[in-house]
Structures are given as structure tokens and as C-alpha cells.
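In this section we walk through a basic example: taking a raw amino acid sequence and producing a predicted 3D structure, encoded as C-alpha cells. The instruction is simple. Fold the sequence below.
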Amino acid sequence: MATFGVFALFPLLANVSRPLLPISQSARQKSVWTNQRDKLVFNNKDADYYRNYTDAAAAIAQTGGKRIGLLIGGDSWEYPLWRYLRKNAAAMPRLEHVKPDAIPAAIEVLFILERPDALSSLAPRAANDSSAFVFRRDRRDHSPWEMLFPPSD
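The resulting C-alpha cell sequence is shown next.
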């Protein structure tokens, strides 16, 4: 049993993405004790991904939408969005996974993450380095989708 404990220490202490003790002194390498929880979720992604995700989540929270449609890739997460909206939205909206060709009329805000195929019908000219996009529409008058994030130049 002691042998297993010794072998368990190596991956525990040498975990590169979420180290208990920072082995390297780089800015990216922070221990789980000193890094913010929200940033720990994105440790295996680059800083731009974190910034795009949180800026898109802020745009969603500012809309005040009650029904949010999610078009996310198979390896994308919605957990950080839930967490961000729970802390920053006036009221927690309903998040629903939708298909690009069948977005329900009740959806007010659309969050697209890592799904460039879904952009072709909504914003064909949205050639941007962002991995996250937010669109809004007024469902009462069936207005077209308006891109909120990333901001158009």
C-alpha cells in the first residue's frame, strides 16, 4: 500500500495543467491554491480562448435574455458559461442546445463556440480569430440576428 502512495505522489505533484506546487515560475504556471477558480478551468487553453469566452459570456449577461441557444462543438464546455451567468446575470437564463438549421423562435440570444459551420447562415462575413460568437434578436418582431460579440470593427 505504501508503494502505491509513493507512485501516486508523482502525478499529484507534477501535474502540469493544475499543479499543487508551482514547479516553474512562469506566469502561466500557478498552483491550484493561488490561481482563480475560473481561470483553472481554462488552464489547458491559451489566454485568448479564456478572454474570448469570458467576454462572450459578459455580452450574454448584458443582454438580459431569458433563453440562450448554444451551438457548441463536441469538445466544448458549457460549464464555465453556467458559472459565469450564475454570478453575473441579473436572472439565470435557460440554456438550450440547438441545431443551426432549427433554432426555436423563443431563443433570444445565441452563443456559438468552436462551430464555424454555424456562422455561415448568421454572419457569412464574420471572418474573425474569435472562437466565440454571440448573436441577439428580438423574437417579438422576428428581427434578424445581430452580432454582439466579437464587436464588429
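Looking at the output, two observations stand out. The first strand starts at residue 67 and ends at 72. Strands lie at 67-72, 94-97, 109-113, 132-136, 146-149. In the next section we compare this with other chains.
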